[in-house]
Write a structure and sequence with these properties.
two-stranded antiparallel ribbon; 7 helices; mainly alpha; disordered C terminus
Length: about 180
């Protein structure tokens, strides 16, 4: 009796274009390490310069300057990379990119909204990332607020998935739509 051939297993569907939670989490961890490293190096250099010229003697002034410097570093790092290239270094390493509804990198305003959403996603024990597990476009809270999606960089997003920009006569609320009206 002849043995039957083992069935050949192949992927039959189109590859998923939206980045999942593990890839996004790894990219965020890489970016957190890089941005914190940049801040620490910058703060150390400024501290060295301050010690050479007399330094800051009051503790609260140093704390305020460090907090402001940290906020500025994080904002410039994340929003700058998102708006210019659509990828932070961590996202590039993980082969993902963030795009707005027109398929291009988000604007500075969308990047700022996305950063606020990222902070709000992290505060409640990273619960803002849980929608990635159930949303059909794998969007987190930050993506829903900013009207963006995170895609694998080596795959093209189907044209039907990208919503057209609102017409000039549409209201301001339509301009910041969270893409929830798009087909799944």
């Amino acid at each position: 009796m002849a043995a039957s051939a083992a069935p050949e297993h192949r992927l039959t569907g189109a590859p998923v274009v939206y980045a999942g939670i593990a890839t996004r989490g790894a990219a965020l961890a890489i970016d957190a390490a890089l941005s914190q490293g940049l801040f620490v190096i910058g703060a150390a250099l400024l501290g060295l310069v301050a010690s050479l010229v007399g330094g800051l003697h009051t503790g609260w002034v140093s704390a305020i300057l460090l907090t402001g410097g940290w906020g500025a570093t994080m904002t410039v790092y994340f929003v700058g990379f998102w708006a210019v290239t659509g990828q932070t270094p961590g996202m590039r390493l993980m082969h993902v990119r963030v795009v707005a509804r027109d398929g291009r990198p988000p604007s500075l305003a969308r990047g700022l909204v996305r950063l606020v959403g990222l902070i709000l996603s992290i505060i409640p024990l990273f619960a803002g990332f849980l929608p990635v597990l159930v949303d059909d476009r794998r969007r987190s809270l930050a993506d829903m607020l900013a009207g963006t999606v995170v895609l694998y960089a080596d795959r093209e997003m189907p044209a039907a998935r990208v919503a057209p920009q609102p017409a000039a006569g549409d209201s301001a609320l339509a301009a910041i739509d969270d893409m929830s009206s798009q087909p799944g």
